Amino acid sequence: MKLKRKDVLGLQDLSAEEINLILDTAEPMKEILAREIKKVPTLRGRSVITLFYEPSTRTRTSFELAAKYLSADTASISVAASSVQKGESLRDTAKTIEVMGADVIIIRHSVSGAPHFLARTVNARVINAGDGAHEHPTQALLDMFTIKEKKGRFAGLKVAILGDITHSRVARSNIWGLTKLGAEVRVVGPPTLMPPFIQDLGVKVFYRCEEGLEDVDVINVLRIQLERQQKGLFPSIREYTRLFGLDEKKLRYAKPDVLVLHPGPVNRGIEISPEVQDGPHAAINEQVTNGVAVRMALLYLLMSGGEVNEIAS
Amino acid sequence: MKLLLKGGSVVDPLKERVLRLDVLVEEGKIAALAPQIEAPDAEIISIDERLVCPGFVDMHCHLREPGEEFKETILTGTRAAGRGGFTAVVCMGNTKPPADSRAVIEFMKRQVETAPVPVYPVGCATKERKGEELAEIGDLAEAGAIALSDDGNSIMSSEVMRRVLEYSRIFDLLVISHCEDRNLSGNGVMHEGFMSTLLGLRGIPRAAEEVHVARDLILAEMTGARLHIAHVSSAGSVQLIREAKSRGVRVTAEVAPHHLCLTDAAVQTFDTNTKVNPPLRTKHDIEALCAGLRDGTIDVIATDHAPHTAEEKEVEFNYAPFGISGLETAVPLMWEYLVTRGVLSPVELVQKMAFNPARILGLPERVIEVGKQAHLTVIDPHLKLPVRVKDFVSLGKNSPFDGWELQGWPVLIIVSGEAIYAERTGAGEKGD
C-alpha cells in the first residue's frame, strides 16, 4: 500500500481511506518505537529536509526522529522569521534544497499556503508541518491516532475543540479529519476567537463550556497565544482561564471517561489546570510518542511501496 | 491625415442606440457620419460589423512612475491601456514620491508627452498621503490634477476627510475615496468569510469598506462636495450609495472587473494574483454589484490596474502586494461577463466605460458626433481568444485570468484621430 499523491498538505485533501491507511500504518510503527533497536532500513538512501520558518521543538524533532528510525538521512534548516523578507525567497531556498537532492521537504511556516506554494515550485515531495492558521495535518493525525487507541472508534464520538479556533491550524485539521471519519465535532471558545462560518465545516459552535463540553468523549485543548489578549480579543488571561481554562470543574460537564488532549506546548495553569494536565484523563505525553509513529507512517507511505508487515515483523 | 472607418456599427451612449454608419475622421475630429461615405483621399479601415464606440476611459489605474519604474512606467502603462482599448487613463498618485506637489504632477505631465494615450493624474488629498494635513490642492489643481485621492491610504480621520471635501469645493474637484477602515481591515489579506476560515488567512470584513462608505457619504452630503467611491466591492456599499443618490448626494461610484468575475473561492489555490484590495468577495456581492450597474447606482467600470513584478508576487500569500494587472483584460472580461450574459447592453457598457467616466472627470465628451474629438474604441464582439499574460505589454504580468477564453476584444483605438492597433496573437486570423 502507498499514498498515491506527491504531497501531504492538509487533511482537507485526504480521503477517509487515506486517513485510515495512515492511522493503521502507524500501529506497527509504534511497535518499532518500543524496540530496543529502533531502526529499520526502509528509507535508506532517501533524504528528508526539515525547513522551518517558525520555531518549533517537538514537531521538528518528531519528524527528524521519524525519518532517522526509518534510516533516511536528514538535515534541518531554520529561517528566522525576522529575516524572511530581507533574505532569500522561499522559492529560491526551496530550489536550492531540491538540487542538493532532497526527496522530501517538511515545511513549517507562519503564512497559510506556504507549503502549497512550495509544492508547486519543487519536484520534491512536500509535507506540511503547520502553515499559518490553515492546517497541521500530522498533529491532527496523531490526535486521531490517540483517540483511536483510547476509544477504538470515531463514529458517534463527541469531540470538543476548546480555545482559540480562529488562529488554530490544529483545529482546522482536526475538524477535517474527525468529520471525515464520522465523529461529531464541536468548537468551544469566545466569539472573538471563533472564525466566521466555521459551522459550515460541519461543526457545532459553543461560546460556553457548560454547553460545549456537555457529554463529550474527547476534549482537545488548544494553546492560547498570550499576545491575542493585547490585540483585544479577550479581556485578560485571568478571565480567559476562568471562562475557558479546562479545570476539574469544567471536566465534569463531559463524560466520566473523557479523554483530554493538548497539542503542546502547554501554558500550564492557563488553558488547562495542572490537575487536569497531570491527571488520569490526559494523554498529552502519549500524543508525543504517537506523533513519531504517525510521521513514520506518513514518510513510509509516501516514499516506499512495500508491505507494512515486512517492516513490522 | 484622414481615416475612414467603413462598415462598422456605431454605438451612441446618449441616444442609446447602435447604427450602421461609416465614420470619417479628419484632423483629429469626427468629420462625417453616414451609412455610406466615400473619401478617396482617406486611409480606409475596414470595420466589418465590429462596434465603433466612443473612446474608453479608465478612471483608476496605477502607472507607478515616478519611483517604481520596475513595476510599470507611464509609457508601458499607456501602451497597455491602448492595447486594452482605452483612449485615456487616470493614474493614481501613490507614486514615490507621492503626487502631493505641483512638481510631481508636472513631472507626470512631461512624461505623458511621449505616451500613446492621454494620462490624467490624480493629486494627493493630503501631504505625503498621511491623512493628516491638506496637500496644496490649489497648486495641484493648477498643475493639472484631475481629481484628489490618497488612494490606498484611506483617510482615517473623519475630520481630515471633512476638510478635504470642503476644500475641494474651491475648484469643484472630484474627491476619489478608497473606502477602508484600516482598523477593521487590519492585516487582512482576503475577504472575511467561509473561505478565509477554510484557508486560515486573515480576513477583511465587508464592514471595513462599508463603514467608510457610510461615513464619506454623510460627509459629502454635509459639505456638498463631489465624492467618487473607488472600487466598490460589497453588497452593503451598493445599498448605501443607492440610498445616498436617492437623496441627492453628489456621489458617483465605480467597480473593478475582477470584483465582477471572481469570488473569494479563487483564493483557494493561494495564487497571489488573486490578492487584491478590496478583496474578491462572494457571489452575493457580485449579484449586488451587477444590480448596481443596471440601476445606475454604479456609474463606472474602472480597472484599478495595479502592476507588480513576478518577484514580488511569487512569494508566500501574506507577503505579496495587493493588486491585479487589469488594463489588458478589462474589456473582454466585461464583454464576456456583462454583455454576453445579458447584465448590460453594449450601449450600457459603453456608458460605464467611456461616457460616464469622461463626464464625471470633465474630459472631452465620449460621443460620436460630427465635430467631436475623435477618441474611439473598436470592439470585435465575436473575437474569441484566450488571455495570454506573457503577451501583456504592461510590465505587470500579475493577472489571475491567464488562459481564460474570452469573447469581445478591442482591436483598435483611435486617439485624437490616430489609429493604434491592438496587436495580439491570433487576432489576425479570426478578426480580419
Structure explained in plain terms:
The complex is a heterodimer of chains A (313) and B (432). With 313 residues, chain A is of the alpha/beta class. Chain A has 13 helices and nine strands. Chain A has a five-stranded parallel beta sheet. Chain A has a four-stranded parallel beta sheet with strand order 2-1-3-4, sandwiched between helices. In chain A, helix 6 links the parallel strand 5 and strand 6. In chain A, helix 1 crosses helix 5, helix 3 crosses helix 4 and helix 5 crosses helix 12. The longest helix of chain A has 20 residues. The radius of gyration of chain A is 19 Å and the shape is globular. The mean pLDDT of chain A is 93. By secondary structure, chain B is of the alpha/beta class. Chain B folds into two domains: 111 residues, Urease, subunit C, domain 1 (Roll); 307 residues, TIM Barrel, CATH 3.20.20.140. In chain B, helix 2 runs parallel beside helix 3, helix 4 crosses helix 7 and helix 8 packs parallel to helix 10. The longest helix of chain B is centred in the middle third of the chain and has 18 residues. The chains are: A alpha/beta (313), B alpha/beta (432). Chains A and B meet through helix 4 of A and helix 6 of B.
Task: Quickly list its features.
heterodimer, A: 313 residues, alpha/beta, four-stranded parallel sheet, 9 strands, 14% strand, globular, B: 432 residues, Urease, subunit C, domain 1, 14 helices, disordered C terminus
Summarize the structure.
Chain A is an alpha/beta fold. Chain A has a five-stranded parallel sheet with strand order 7-6-5-8-9. Chain A has helices spanning 16-33, 58-69, 90-99, 114-121, 137-151, 169-180, 209-212, 227-230, 237-244, 248-251, 274-277, 284-303, 308-312, and strands spanning 47-52, 73-78, 104-109, 125-131, 158-162, 184-188, 204-206, 218-221, 259-261.
How would the global form of chain A be characterised? globular
Q: Number of helical runs of chain B?
A: 14
Please count the beta strands of chain B (DSSP E, at least 2 residues each): 18
Average predicted local confidence, pLDDT of chain A = 93
On the 0 to 100 scale, the average pLDDT of chain B is 96
Largest sheet of chain A: 5 strands, parallel
Low-confidence stretches of chain A: none
How would a textbook summarize the main sheet of chain B?
8 strands, mixed
- What is the helix fraction of residues of chain A, given as a range? 25-40%
CATH architecture of the largest domain in chain B: Alpha-Beta Barrel
Secondary structural class of chain A? alpha/beta
Strand order in space, largest sheet of chain A: 7-6-5-8-9
Count of the domains of chain B? 2
Approximate helicity band of chain B: 25-40%
What is the terminal separation of chain A in angstroms? 16 Å
CATH topology of the largest domain in chain B: TIM Barrel
